[in-house]
Amino acid sequence: MVHRFHPNILLVGATHFGRGVAARTASMLHTGLTADCIQLEIDPLSGRLLQIRPAFGGNLLATIETPHHRPQMASVRLGVMKAPESDQNRTGRIIPYNADHLITPTQVEILAEEIISSCYSITDASILIAGGKGMQNRENIPLLYELADLLGGQVAASRAAVEADWLPYECQIGQTGKTVKPRLYIACGISGQTQHVVSIMDAGTVIAINNDVDAPIFGYADYGLIGDVTAVLPTLIRELKMKKKEVEIY
Question: How does pLDDT run across 152-171, given as a tens digit for each residue?
Answer without folding.
Answer: 889 999 998 998 989 888 88
